[in-house]
Structures
1.
Amino acid sequence: MYHDRYVLEEGVWRIWDLTLDEPYITPVSWKDGVWAKAKDPVRRPAGEAGAGRAGGAGRGGNANVDIPLTALGKREEHFQGGTGEPTPWPAILPMWFDYTNPVSGRRPENFQENCTVCTLRPDLRLDRNGYQEAPDAPQANQSP
């Protein structure tokens, strides 16, 4: 899931924030069309090479990121490259939202106020940089 933000400056849309929760699922058999037959991966004993990591996803490599997933704590718990033991597919990771339910206005269980990294870097909030936040539901979905 992407949590991207853009700003309009002098008629040009610019990227403000690119945040990605990756991956929610990593199917082990997608090429064979057998997603429904997938089994939980076998965990290696602690101390064994590669223990705790399924596949090569999420190792960071040479990625040049401003804020690593590990800095987001619980927000990235069990994601590949995040904190804690990775939870690979077919297990399901929690999905985070930075907006309320568009119909009821209810806050989801995993609600992230404002932007993903704003708890660590409040200076990145749109409103602290002269930009307006998009209206939240349900007010945003009402007819005039």
2.
Amino acid sequence: MDDDLKRVALKAVKEGGAILMKYFGKIKSIDYKGEINLVTEADQRSEEVILSIIKDSYPNHRILAEETGESGNFSSFKWIIDPLDGTTNYAHGYPCFCVSLAIEYEEEVLYGAVYDPVKDELFTAEKGKGAFINGKAIKTSSTKQLDQSLLCTGFPYDVRDDMDSNILNFRTFLMKAQAVRRDGSAALDLCHTAAGRFDGFWEQKLFPWDVAAGGLLVTEAGGKLTNFTGGNFSIYDKEIVASNGLIHDQMVEALNG
């Protein structure tokens, strides 16, 4: 991975995070993309700043961003951006949110950066070179049993319309794991799994910008990613199981039991 690409990526997530902190607790405008799916002026301003930084250095690269969608030419590079993951938390003043950015080359994610501006934690991973928090190497947990595991998950925005969306799975893991958390930011959930704070994570109906960077962090920290049946994971699929690898088969079995 070219050092300049990484430099631009880190500048983008840091400046996006600075925008989020500038507006945090001061939001005056909230719009709805769905019944419970929010977008704030902070999402939009953060994305504007991030896109400006990327386009200044790489005007021909492709971009997939949550708020503005796809753009760019037929480059082999694609930047995958979530300017504010955890918007509902953010809008309510709950300090659990982040900026997530990944760089994909020829359909493979090679670099990921997730910035938690509240804790000033910068999670980074490069394909084949490990995962880090603020430059310090991280590894997934060593927990081997599901009943001793702390898991995390989330619910899709259509949960009111499709009551099967993860509720049965949530109940299953409440009974089988030591505990389950629901923090409201998939990107941070994946980062915390990579760092060994969670032992596993599962969710459905996510988007590439939710999982591209965090997913790379998990695998580079020694963990494992699959779909719900244990098959190959793709950031363009709608379901993910992430774990330390040691409890992975137990999680998949629980999801399909």
